[in-house]
Amino acid sequence: MKLVIAGNGVGSVTLIKELKKLNFDAKIDVFTDEKRPFYWRPRLIEVLANEATIKDITPYNEKWYDSHNVKLHLSDPIVELNINDKKARSKAGKIMSYDAFIFANGSKCFVLPIKGNDLENIYTLRDYDDVENIKKHYGHSTKIVVIGGGILGIEMAAALKQAGENEVSVVEFFPYLLPRQLDKQAATVLKKQLERSYGINFLLGKATAELGGEKKVEKISFSDKTSINADVVIFSVGVRSNTNVAKKSGIKVERGIVIDEHLKTNANGVYAVGDVAQYDNVVYGTVPPSVEQARALAGVLASQNRTYTGSIMSNMLKVAGINLLSTGKTNPDDGNFRFASQGDMSRGIYKKVILEKGRFVGSIAIGIKTQEALRMKKLVENGESIRSDILKYVELAELSEGGMI
Ligand SMILES: Cc1cc2nc3c(=O)[nH]c(=O)nc-3n(C[C@H](O)[C@H](O)[C@H](O)COP(=O)(O)OP(=O)(O)OC[C@H]3O[C@@H](n4cnc5c(N)ncnc54)[C@H](O)[C@@H]3O)c2cc1C
Question: In what order do the strands lie in the sheet with 100-103?
Fold first, then answer.
């Protein structure tokens, strides 16, 4: 079977590894616009913090690709797909016929469409080149402002502080950090920890209106008429799936490439996994769903009758000294949920479990032992129902209907 894969991220390499495990006989061509082989994208944060090099985060060499029957085409993205002739064309002009084509080409960072966003020294962080560009500014007491207080924004800010003399601020539109993963109390605990341990400045509830400067960025203005100075700005305000090629070829695209439970698009022999894929209205944008989708696709291609039925979102903040794990629905806003929480601000501890119809559907754990946090995560992932001994996780005597105790 001839497989052509667009992209060489975690979705792509997981698929390759799984196909080998299943002894699936395929000739695989992988195309990527990057100039280097696969590296662990989340570990770019360690490179930003000067704690790892690109070599440390690159697990597979040429031999690995050979042994998996893969021809890797570096710096040569797929630019066109002809779904009727089953042919893909690369930027360098290679025409590849395929039995199965897999979109595993990820996502790109979103940049706020505001005045001044094209000034110099404004970055996003998606690949190794971005890290190198940002690091050129180290060592000059640089004022770096990260726009976006989500997981990635916070990890970047902590890494920038770890790397040296940078003065680092994080700007968040919402009035609290990690609005998608935490509730207000948890976010307050986290903010205190980050201020105390890393000296990051936070500007919360600020809508960025405009970036100013002559040639280089110098200033960020907010909609409330306040402003701050900046030498470097990094946007961390979410990602958008790379859907252009799919869209042009007539494949159904909404926020991502629409796939069914067999990871298949509406075109014959064309599949999608990872950040580029949309399953059941959800584009996940994290590693575990990309891995789960790629594993399921290997089963589908090897005719194992595998299906994919969705993933449970889970986020871990990888900032040294701060354990944070949030899973599932963490901040539901209707009355069908019951929750229990407990926090100790002075010790940087917060735990919360969320229940729906007697089953665990969400959890937040900050500052507690990893083992216990993982147990809370498992309760959600397994959809376990409440039992009296579960209460020891939150150390509360009872759960009250629809509210916090
Ligand atoms: C700095 C950073 C930290 C992160 N930390 C975490 C974390 O801690 N936990 C977590 O779960 N997730 C994390 N993520 C998100 C995670 O990296 C992604 O969810 C994951 O990499 C998605 O895998 P993927 O294979 O779908 O796509 P990607 O890893 O994005 O790989 C897709 C590849 O396809 C290439 N490409 C694009 N267009 C084409 C084309 N037309 N033809 C060929 N190739 C193309 C891209 O350049 C890219 O190399 C982080 C992301 C970043 C940037």
Answer: 70-73, 27-31, 2-6, 100-103, 270-272
Over the Cα atoms of the chain, what is R_g?
Answer: 23
Q: Are strands 201-204 and 167-172 parallel, antiparallel or unpaired?
A: parallel
- Mean pLDDT, range 90-100, rounded to an integer: 98
Residue 359: per-residue pLDDT: 86
Evaluate if residue 389 carries a pLDDT over 60. Answer: no
Chain segment 220-262, per-residue pLDDT in tens: 999 999 999 999 999 999 999 999 999 999 999 999 999 999 9
What's the gap in Å between 227 CA and the centre of ligand 1?
Answer: 33
Q: Could you tell me where the DSSP H helices lie in 140-241?
A: 151-162, 184-198
Q: Tell which one of 30, 41, 102, 180 to mutate to probe ligand 1, the residue whose CB is within 8 A of the most ligand atoms.
A: 41
Give the type of residue at 361.
Answer: V
Q: How large a percentage of the chain has pLDDT more than 90?
A: 74
Domains recognised in the chain with CATH numbers: 2-108+239-301 (3.50.50.60), 122-235 (3.50.50.60), 321-393 (3.30.390.30)
Closest to 343 (Cα-Cα) out of 370, 364, 325:
364
Average pLDDT over residues 336-364: 85
Please state the atom number of ligand 1 nearest to the C-alpha of residue 45: 1
Q: How far is the CA of 401 from the centre of ligand 1 (A)?
A: 41
Quick one: angle between helices 287-301 and 10-21, nearest 10?
Answer: 40
Q: How many CA atoms lie within 13 A of 402 on its CB side?
A: 4
Best CA proximity match to 151, nearest among 291, 18, 317, 262: 317
Q: How confident is the model at residue 308 (pLDDT cuts 50, 70, 90)?
A: very high
Q: 307 CA distance to ligand 1 centroid (A)?
A: 23
* pLDDT average, residue stretch 128-138: 95
pLDDT for the residue 396: 42
Task: Check residue 390 and give its pLDDT.
Answer: 55
Apex CA 172: angle with CA 169 and CA 173, to 5°? 150
Quick check: helix, strand or coil at residue 173? coil
- Phi, psi for residue 365 in degrees, rounded to 5: -135, 120
Assess contact for 276 and 103: CB atoms under 8 A: yes
pTM above threshold 0.85? yes
Q: What are phi and psi of 330, to 5 degrees?
A: -100, -15
Half-sphere exposure (Cβ direction) of 302: Cα atoms closer than 13 Å: 20
Query: How many Cα atoms within 13 Å fall on the side-chain side of residue 10?
Result: 18
